[in-house]
Amino acid sequence: MSRLKYKYSLDKFGNVISISEAKKGDVYYFGQTDIELIVKDGGTNRKHFSLKSGGSIDSLFSGGGESPEHYNAKYEIKKQGFFYWNDIKIQPSRIEIEHEFKTIDKISDVVFFDEDDNLMCVIEVYFTNKKTDKDIDDFKKLNTTVYEYNIKNGSTELLCWSVSSEQNRISEEEKLELWYDDTIKSKEKEIERLEKELHDKTGNLRESIREERVSYGKLERESEEIELNIKKSSEGTRQIEQESYDVETKLKRGRSAEPGFRDRIKWTKKEIENLEEQEQGVGELRLQVEKAEYEVANVEGENRAIKGNIQWQENRSRQSHTVIQRNL
Fold first, then answer.
1. Could you give the residue ranges of the DSSP H alpha helices within the chain?
2. 87: which residues sit within 8 A by CB, 6+ positions away?
3. Secondary structure of residue 107 in the 3-state scheme
4. What residue spans define the domains of the chain?
5. Which residues does the chain have with pLDDT short of 70?
6. Could you tell me which residues come within 8 angstroms of residue 17 by beta carbon, excluding any fewer than 6 positions away?
């Protein structure tokens, strides 16, 4: 299938009609000429414009005429009704194709006008022939904004602008310079603040690192002590296990000797009972002994009293004998 060459035409009212909108049987015109076009649709070829008079449509640009790409780009702008430059949408009230500027003796590709029919801007379509410095100098005489639209890569270059636009540009540049100076000063202060903050944070970080190192050394020592305690605990655990084993062994031995112990306990109980009976008899004897001792104590007391009387009588007798001898 061949590549579609011409995508737009004009109807009898001068409206731009795309090939998708065109109807078979109607007559259209090749741009702002009187060359009649018709629509062919069907067969082996896709829907396309063709010369009503017959012959090849390639004859329209053969011999150095306007290329289909250049033609399509112009009428595509007019069809969509606006144009973008640096994300700025330029939307006119009226668009003219192939507008003639007699003051500079030039015909421009696309020209925008506002609602008061004042010139807004000029758009030159670039496909093979880029505008020269002389062309740009001529456009400057129009005192309007001129763009060059590169249909190869879709970029747009600003060739020149109006005096008012230039003044606005200078004013904006001055504002931009002031903003830039203020921004630079503000950023410098911010950088100084951030540098100081960074210095302070670095100092704090270094101190934190030093403290962490000290803490890490302490933790290492504690870890060593814990490991030593674990080792001691392991040894203690082994000792406890050995002692537990010994106790269990003794318990087993004790359980095996338990019947003999039980017999010895029974025999001991009987001996205790016998001793208690004997002790009861001893208690009675003790009472009898205590009674006899009490009676002996009484007799001894009476004897001491009798001896005392006898001694007193003897003393009286000696005193009487002494008195008698003195009287003689």
1. 68-80, 133-140, 163-327
2. none
3. strand
4. 1-65, 67-161
5. 1-4, 62-64, 164-173, 175-176, 254-255, 257-261, 265, 282, 289, 317, 320-321, 323-328
6. 8, 9, 10, 11, 28
User: In the chain, what is the straight-line distance between the N-terminal and C-terminal CA atoms, in Å?
Assistant: 203
**122 contacts 111 by C-beta, under 8 angstroms:** yes
CA–CA distance, 95 with 191 (Å, rounded to integer): 52
Which contiguous run of DSSP H or E holds residue 14? none
The top-level CATH class assigned to 67-161 is alpha beta
The rounded distance, in Å, linking the Cα atoms of 29 and 318 is 199
pTM, 2 dp: 0.51
Question: How far is it, in rounded angstroms, from Cα 74 to Cα 292?
Answer: 161
Distance, in Å, from the CA atom of 169 to the CA atom of 298, rounded to the nearest integer, reads 153
Nearest to 71 by CA among 125, 20, 137: 125
